[in-house]
Amino acid sequence: MRVAIVNLMLAVYRFGAVLYATSAAVSTIHLIKITVDQQCLRFLGFTFLNLVPLMYERIHARAVASARRRRQPAARRRVKRDMLMAGLLPAYLACTAMSLVSVGGSILGAGLLMMQSSVFAFMQFSLRERLEATWSCLFRPCAMALAILYRVGTPETKMYIPRAYELFTRFYLRLLTNPQQLFEQPAPDLFSYGTYQMIHGFS
């Protein structure tokens, strides 16, 4: 009887040790995921903000091309002004939000109130207008830059790009549908988007 009790206690102890080791390993993997996601966000922010001159050049080129279709000088000036506002407003919001996302900061108090007017003006556009104003000037340059970096980058750079692209698409969708949330809670939930494989077989 005593032998059976001892064996049972040993079995429980071994099961507890295995369970503890498993939970510790899972916690370590989650910590690695969080660390990798933070590095991916910093890499994404660095890449995105370095493309700002190209984005503004594309916004200006679209505005000029649209204005040339008008015959009257007054109509040209009006169309160019409207196109610049439609393009520069989301670019300003995206650059501000991306700088917050990449460093894990947020805007509170008076700063948030100042951003609300810009967010309100952006939300007056329809979803189609928001998509047209941001797709070719914001999303496509960054997506192409990530693709080029994946092709010619170092192995360490290639390791971050798949997750950085996933985080960027989430950021872009939040910008289109709920830009206010980007300033209230800039950083997304780091590994709530499903499992992924990043380094050393962790998934």
Automatic annotation (TrEMBL):
Q: Which UniProt keywords apply?
A: Membrane, Transmembrane, Transmembrane helix
- Top-level taxon of the source organism: Eukaryota
Segments spanning the bilayer are 12-32, 86-113
Q: What's this protein's name?
A: Uncharacterized protein
